[in-house]
Design brief:
This protein is of the alpha/beta class. It folds into two domains: about 150 residues, Leucine Aminopeptidase, subunit E, domain 1; about 325 residues, Zn peptidases (Aminopeptidase, 3-Layer(aba) Sandwich). About 35% of the residues lie in helices and about 20% in strands. It is built from 14 helices and 20 strands. Helix 9 links the parallel strand 10 and strand 11.
Length: about 500
Amino acid sequence: MKIDVISATPLKHTTPALIIGCFEDVRDELFSACDAALEGCLGRMAVSREFCGKLNSTRLVHTLGKLPAERLLLVGLGKRAELVEERLRQASGSAVQALRAAKVASFATSLHLVGKPESALEAVCEGALLGSYGFELYKTKERAELFSFEGMTLLLPKGGNRQEAVARVAAAAAVCRGVSLARDLVSHPGNVATTGYLAETARELAVRHKLLCEILELDELELLGMNALLAVGKGSVEPPRLIVLEYRGAGDSGRPVVMVGKGITFDSGGISIKPGAGMEEMKTDMAGAAAVLGALEAAAVLKLPVNLVGIIPTAENMPDGKAYKPGDVLTSLSGQTIEITNTDAEGRLVLCDALHYAQKYKPAAMIDLATLTGACVVALGHEASGLMGNDQKLVNALKKAGESCGERVWELPLWDEYGEVMKSDIADLKNAGSRDGGSITAGWFLKQFVGKTHWAHLDIAGTAWSDKTRPCSPKGATGVGVRLLIEYLRGR
C-alpha cells in the first residue's frame, strides 16, 4: 500500500474516507469540529452508546456532502490517559480492516495527530500496513474481485516537517516489509516452502541487499558432524540444510548479533507421529526461520549500524524407513550425545547443532526463535512468547523491546533443577523429558549448546499463528519476532 504524506487540514481534505481517533472520555478539537459539521450526529451516537470510543471499535459514517471527506471512519482509542503507542498501532490496524470490509481502497488518516509526535506517526503507519496484509496467492476463483488497498494519505499539521515524516514512514514500511516476508513464508504450504525454498529465499535476500550467503548442503553437514540436524531430515526426500546469512552494517569492527531460527518446513512428528486433526498447521513450524529472514530484510533496508548473522537449520520431519526413531543415540556437533525419546521433539535437535555452530562467530549476543513446544501455548496462550536465557541484561532488553513494539514476551525460569528430567541413562542427554514444565526443559536443553555466549531463547509456538483476526494481523501467520528483533537491535 502506497503512503503519501501531505500538509492538510483534515476538515478540508477531500478523500473517500477520513480516519479520526475518538476517546471514551474526551472530545478533542477534531471530533468536535466534525460533529459540528455533521450537525451533532457524532455526539448523538456517543450519547446513545452507538459509538462511544471503546478501544478498537469502529464506525463508518457517510458525510452526505457536509465535509470534503465522503466518509468518516471513527476508531476508538479508549481513555485519553491510557493512550500509548500500541493502542494507536492497533487502532490503525482496526481502521484499515473496517475499510477493507467496506471496500474503500483509498483513505486519509489523522490518527497520529492525537499521539506523541516522536512515535505516533510510525505506530499508525505500522498498524495500517500490518492490518492491511492479506495472503490470497492460492485463491483462483474470482481473482478480479479480490480487494486491495490503493493508498493511504497521512495528514500533517501546517508547519509539520514533511521530509522527516517521509523518512519515518519509510522506516515503518521497512519493518512491515520484513513482517510481510515472514508472514508469506509461514503461509505457504509445506509442498512449496521446502528447505530448498528457504535456501533460495535466502539467496535472493543476499542478492537484493548485498549480504553474504552460505548454504551448507547434505554432504557438508555430514563432514561437519551435524548429526542432530541430519537425523531430523533423514525421513524426508527434502534434504536438510543450514542457511547462513551475514549483514555487516557496522563493518568489520563489531561482534555480530546472531539470530537462529528453527526451520522445520513441515512437522509430522516423525515416527512419534502427531494426531491427524490440525496437522495441516504444522507447515508453520518454520516461523522462527521466517522471523530471522524477515528481520534481516528489515535491518538491511533500514541500514541498521549493527553486524548480524542469521542461521537457519532447516529440515522436514517425516516418518520413513530411514527416519530416526525413539531409542536412537545421536552425537551432536558439540560432541554431546543425545538419546531420542520422542521424534516429535525435533526442533531442539536442529537448533542444538546450529547454536553450537554459531559460536564460531563469537557473538555479542545470540537469540533463537522457535515454535518449539505446545507446553508454551498451554502456559502462555497466544498473547505472549516464552522467553528464557542465560544473561539477564539480554533478557531485560528483549522484554523492553517487546513492550515497546507490542510483541510481548514473558520470562520463564531456567533453573538447573529443570534439567534433571533431561538426563539419559545411556547418553549425555535425552531430547525430551516429562510433560511437566515442557517449555522450560526444552529451553534448558538448548542452554547446553550455547557455551558462554550471551543467549536468549524465544518460544513462539503460541504467537506465530492466530486462529482469529487481530487488529494488526488477519487470521493466520503473524510474522511474530521480526518487529521484536528490530526493536531490540535499534536499542543496541
